[in-house]
């Protein structure tokens, strides 16, 4: 039930922000394939497999990235 809900939410999203994950651990990493929206944002200290698909990539710790965005 939880995975089905996650799949539905991701499939319906216009924008998806993925943060603080290498996208290497399944099954959660596989959820990205259901995203069909326009804007994908990836926030992670290291590169991820999704970086090439992303509209915006921030290679920094998620807390730092969100703090900077909140300050703007």
Please describe what this structure looks like.
- It is a single chain.
- By secondary structure, the protein is an alpha/beta fold.
- The chain has one domain (about 1-70): TPP-binding domain (Rossmann fold).
- It is built from two helices and three strands.
- A three-stranded parallel sheet has the order 1-2-3, with no helix packed on it.
- The protein is globular.
- The relative contact order is 0.19.
How would you write the strand order of the largest sheet?
1-2-3
CATH superfamily: TPP-binding domain
Number of helices: 2
Number of domains: 1
Summed over residues and divided by their number, the pLDDT gives a mean of: 91
Q: Predict the CATH topology.
A: Rossmann fold
Could you say what the CATH architecture is? Answer: 3-Layer(aba) Sandwich
CATH class: Alpha Beta
By DSSP, the count of extended strands is 3
Catalogue the unreliable spans: none
Based on CA inertia axes, which overall geometry fits?
globular
Profile the largest sheet: 3 strands, parallel
The arrangement of helices and strands along the chain is HEEEH
Tell me the fraction of residues in β-strands, as a range. 15-25%
Q: What distinguishing features does this structure have?
A:
72 residues, alpha/beta, Rossmann fold, three-stranded parallel β-sheet, 2 helices, 3 strands, DHS-like_NAD/FAD-binding_dom, Ssirtuin_cat_dom
Characterize this entry briefly:
The chain is built from two helices and three strands. It is 29% helix and 18% strand.
């Amino acid at each position: 039930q939880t995975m089905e809900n996650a799949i539905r939410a991701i499939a319906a999203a216009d924008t998806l922000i993925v943060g603080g994950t290498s996208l290497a651990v399944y099954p959660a990493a596989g959820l990205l394939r259901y995203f069909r929206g326009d804007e994908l944002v990836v926030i992670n200290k290291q590169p991820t497999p999704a970086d090439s698909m992303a509209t915006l990539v921030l290679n920094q710790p998620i807390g730092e990235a969100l703090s900077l965005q909140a300050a703007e």
